[in-house]
Amino acid sequence: MPMSDVARRWAPRILGLGSCPCLISAALLFASFVAGAEPVGAQAGAFESNRCADCHVATVSPNRSHVTDWQLSAHGRHGVGCEDCHGGDASTFDAALAHRDVGSSSNPSSPVFYSNLPKTCGSCHEAQLEAFAQSRHFELLDETGWRAPSCSTCHTDAGAFLLSSRGLERQCKRCHGAGKRAPHPENPSLARSAHENLVQVREMLEPAVRLISSIEDDTRRARLEQQLEDAQAPLTRAAAAAHAFTYDSFEELLAESRERVEEVWRQLANPEGDAQ
User: Fold this and answer.
1) Is 217 left (phi over 0), alpha (psi -120 to 50) or beta?
2) Half-sphere exposure of residue 163, counting CA atoms within 13 Å on the CB side?
3) Domain boundary residue among 102, 131, 150?
4) Is residue 156 part of a domain?
5) Measured between alpha carbons, how far is 96 from 218 in angstroms, rounded to an integer?
6) Does any domain span residue 221?
């Protein structure tokens, strides 16, 4: 169920707004606000302490958008710096020292070489790597070095932005489909559907997190926080299953998470019933 449907169903009751369309719109805006992104200052922290970004923006080399994408990404916001993936020393302006042991992405020994990305990304994203390593895609990547998807195929480069649902479908169609080199022509539509459903559940979950954090009753807040944690667990496992491209398992886990999140929203909308 999309976030707009969730908010339309529950937020007016939570906020006591009745069924007026204008007030429902206000509820939707409120739900969007409470699920808002991190402040700009938080995003700027990693950028301000990273000498790589300072120089590469100033020299427009190798590509200014590469640095901008990183700055706006979850990596940039959480202090994962250039050196964590590329190597080198991000604390100095000395070019020789900064680029020591940094290889081009076209160098097979580089940690950001196409077929090395799973190992590099997996140093932090262990569950995703473990799932991906069980897939035929990983097997082909290991065998060929490039004729199979790697992390950047779906998540782009420095920004690590996951493609849209349609974007994923287009990527899958490059190999899967009538007359293509890979079997399973159904995979592109399965990937698109999986991504759309995952986004829907996340859009249900995120505003609930913010609303629950604002509850003053300690006992009720703790109970709902535990229920949220129980709803997030299968969602995390579903995201891992998606990296193995095991769609049956993915759908089962996602359905479990959706059911638990909907129960949280029901209790948010009916505090009297929750207390019984």
Assistant:
1) beta
2) 18
3) 102
4) no
5) 55
6) yes
The span from the CA of 24 to the CA of 32, in Å, is 12
Ranges 48-62, 165-179, 244-258: which has the least confidence? 48-62
Q: Is residue 20 in some structural domain?
A: no
Nearest to 1 by CA among 188, 205, 163: 205
Which residues are CB-neighbours of 160 under 8 A, at least 6 positions away?
A: 73, 74, 75
d(CA 102, CA 49): 19
Which domain-ending residue is among 57, 72, 102?
Answer: 102
**Confidence at 50, pLDDT banded by 50, 70, 90:** confident
- 96 burial (CB, 10 Å; 0-12 / 13-18 / 19+) is exposed
Tokens of 4: 């707009």
Average pLDDT, the chain: 82
Domain of residue 98 covers 42-102
Res 187: pLDDT: 92
Residue 213 domain flag: yes
CA angle 79, 148, 80 (to 5 degrees): 5
Q: With beta carbons less than 8 A apart as the criterion, state whether 231 and 260 touch.
A: yes
Domain count for the chain, please give it. 2
CB atoms within 10 A of CB 185: 14
